[in-house]
Amino acid sequence: MLKGIDESIMDAGIPEYVFAMFQGKFAIITPALIAGAFAERIKFRGYCIFIALWSLIIYNPLCHWVWAEDDFLFQKGAIDFAGGTVIHISAGAAALVAAFHLGPRRGYPKTAMHPNNLVMTLMGAGLLWVGWFGYDDTLDVFGIHGVAALWGAIGLTFVLRPGTIDVSVMHQLWVQTEGCLVSLTYSGVMTFILIVIVDKLFGFRMSEDEEKAGIDHSLHSERGYGMVNLNS
Q1: Exposed (0-12), middle (13-18) or buried (19+): which is 21, by Cβ within 10 Å?
Q2: CA separation for the pair 182, 80 (Å, rounded)
Q3: Quick check: 98 and 188 in contact, CB under 8 A?
Q4: Which residues lie closer than 8 Å to 218 by C-beta, 6 or more apart?
Q5: Would you tell me the crossing angle of helices 16-34 and 44-54 to the nearest 10 degrees?
Q6: Helix 169-201 vs helix 90-102: angle between axes, to the nearest 10 degrees?
Q7: Can you give the pLDDT at residue 232?
Q8: Could you check whether the bond before residue 31 is cis, i.e. omega within 30 degrees of 0?
Q9: Which candidate, 89, 96, 192, 191, places its Cα nearest to that of 140?
Q10: Can you give the pLDDT at residue 95?
Q11: Are 52 and 58 in contact (CB under 8 A)?
Q12: What are the phi and psi torsion angles at 13 (to 5°)?
């Protein structure tokens, strides 16, 4: 996996190993964003297989198309400073397709679904406020990540510093739009194909009884709060 990567220093002044770790972090976080679209509705085995295939078949090609100097979107001049096209649009499109294919949670919106533990919810929100709030926002994935990234990638054209590009604004606007369309289309179509294949071969959506019982109990034989008083 690390063949060809050594301790040499890149043109940017950082070691290749550091850059590989940096890219690896993006490869890990991107499929995790999709989970917010189908939390508590899919089987763990199907999820693991889907995420592994999604990373290899969808994320890796998109990453290379946009960030590799020898691939077509980079050579066209598509600009993606922080992963809007590679990460957020692709994850948003995948999440939207997955949500439409799976449908809502059983009982939603007629059945009230109260928070599991407000204390842990508050602790988690606090950790995100202290840490990196903008990255782990996973609920409403398409609305937060997908739409915001679409606007960011396209709107970037109008706020570039003079001299950043050597083409007209309208040309760059089309290049940015093309990058967004490629990411949306490729991620959306391939995600649908992957979900169908994984569902047919391994199972993806939980049964009604499993979903009502909860994934911890039905699939992992565990309970989040199954503590026993040993002194009783």
Answers
A1: exposed
A2: 13
A3: no
A4: 206, 209, 210, 211
A5: 130
A6: 40
A7: 47
A8: no
A9: 96
A10: 94
A11: no
A12: 90, 15
Instruction: Profile the chain (232 residues) by mean pLDDT over runs of 10 residues.
Output: 75 84 89 86 92 95 94 94 92 94 84 77 80 62 90 92 86 95 97 96 89 81 62 48
For residue 126, CA distances in Å to 15, 54, 70, 112, 141 come to: 34, 30, 42, 25, 20
Q: How far apart are CA 48 and CA 218, in angstroms?
A: 17
What domains can be seen in the chain, in order of their start residue? 16-105+117-220 (1.10.3430.10)
Structure tokens at 144: 């937060």
With a CB cutoff of 8 Å and minimum separation 6, the contacts of 9 are 15, 16
Q: Is pTM beyond 0.70 here?
A: yes
Distance CA 130, CA 39 (A): 24
Alpha-carbon span 119 to 161, nearest angstrom? 45
The per-residue pLDDT for 121 is 80
pLDDT score, position 149: 93
